[in-house]
Specification:
18 helices
Length: 407
């Protein structure tokens, strides 16, 4: 099994992580600042949740039209451009007196811009690391996301006690600029993984191919729906506990970090596939206790324990890569990232609506119950599919699944 030391000896892995980590810190600080700004201005849990997670909902549009660029554009150039675009739009959000309609217009634009990011990052990581190092490398990637969320939300919560949300948004914009600089100076200029020009038709054609396999469909749904419902509930932290939202988000990041480290480094490869359903259940079950409206301390414990279940994405991404040709890895991971982000945005809208009609605690409980239900249904469907097709043919670069393996 590869070690963390061997990963960091791999050329470009460290600058790749530094660029991603800086961008992740900007995302968390900027998201908390924007959610707080909107909640202070409107007092609405719905609008606060949508302002934080609305860009992810908008990624659905980008995924439908732009994803072919994940494999057909040079990764360093596109990652630098994305970071610069986020720096500019975050600075716009910091403008004093920006109308609410303009805020959500910028949020929509950010979602469209971000739709390429997941595929480009995932595909580049797949190139930088060897096949046997991908899961461990992805776990480090996810752990860094967790650490940056902990640091970003804790720092953002502390900064918001002394600074205005607009000032925190400007700080996030500066971090995005730093991410663009690290990308430009630290990564090698690589050619696109696939030939041809990115286009809407190419995006639709490849998305349809990726969706044509029943196994991949079930894997995508497992990555998207249980996660999206729980993250929708997470979007209510600001309205559930306004003074402690940063603490709850940081605890969630801590749990995510611990789960990814355990699954990526400690769990044997032969055992990992069996953990997909238990981890997805762990992700949701602790939130059922929010029906009792626990205080901040018990809420933080529940959030930490539940967030270890986000490691299910490692297991399912490994399964997705085993079912996907190498030259489609970028778009396959981009479709995963876009769909997950979109479902998180849908979850935020649904959770915000439920909270508006009931209460944040009730909405979080209902979202968790929905996640448990979907996980159990997908587990039953996956078991049925495994009984129909007990073996999965190995994938080789550029080789598509046999028609008999699709539904």
């Amino acid at each position: 099994m590869p070690s963390y030391r061997s990963l960091f000896r791999t050329p470009e892995f460290t600058p790749f992580l530094l660029s991603f980590g800086t961008s992740a810190a900007a995302h968390t600080i900027g998201g908390l600042a924007l959610g707080t700004l909107v909640f202070r201005a409107t007092g609405s849990p719905f609008l606060s949740a949508v302002s934080m997670f609305g860009p992810q909902l908008a990624q659905l549009l980008g995924g439908a039209f732009l994803l072919s660029g994940a494999d057909r554009l040079p990764p360093r150039a596109i990652l630098s451009a994305l970071a610069l675009a986020f720096a500019a739009t975050t600075a716009v959000l910091a403008l004093p007196g920006l109308p609410l309609w303009a805020v959500f217009g910028v949020v929509l634009l950010q979602g469209l811009v971000a739709s390429l990011g997941g595929g480009v990052n995932g595909g580049l990581l797949n190139e930088i690391l060897s096949k046997d190092g991908y899961v461990l490398g992805r776990s480090v990637y996810n752990m860094l996301w967790g650490l940056m969320q902990m640091a970003g939300f804790a720092t953002g919560g502390a900064l918001l006690a002394f600074l205005s949300p607009q000032t925190c948004l400007l700080l996030a914009a500066v971090l995005y600029l730093l991410s663009a600089l690290v990308t430009r100076l630290g990564l090698t200029a690589r050619p696109p993984r696939s030939s041809g020009r990115p286009s809407v038709s190419a995006t639709w054609r490849t998305n349809a191919l990726l969706w044509s396999s029943r196994r991949r469909r079930l894997t995508y749904l497992g990555l998207w729906v249980p996660n999206g419902l729980v993250v929708g509930g997470d979007s209510l932290y600001v309205s559930y506990a306004p003074a402690a939202a940063g603490t709850l988000y940081a605890c969630g990041a801590l749990g995510m970090f611990a789960g990814d480290m355990a699954v990526g480094r400690l769990v044997p490869a032969a055992v990992r596939p069996r953990l997909a359903t238990p981890l997805r259940l762990l992700l949701a079950v602790p939130y059922l206790f929010f029906v009792l409206r626990p205080g901040v301390t018990l809420s933080a414990v529940a959030v930490t324990v539940a967030s270890a279940g986000f490691a299910a994405s490692l297991v399912l991404q490994e399964r997705l890569m085993s079912l996907t040709p190498d030259d489609l890895a970028g778009q396959a991971l981009g479709l995963h990232a876009t769909g997950m982000a979109a479902l998180q945005g849908v979850g935020a809208v649904l959770a915000g609506t439920l909270a508006q009609l009931t209460s944040p605690a009730t909405a979080m409980t209902l979202m968790a119950a929905g996640s448990v239900t979907v996980t159990l249904i997908l587990a039953a469907l996956g078991g049925h599919e495994e009984r129909r097709h007990p073996s999965v043919p190995a994938m080789r670069p550029g080789v598509l699944p046999e028609p008999a393996a699709t539904d």
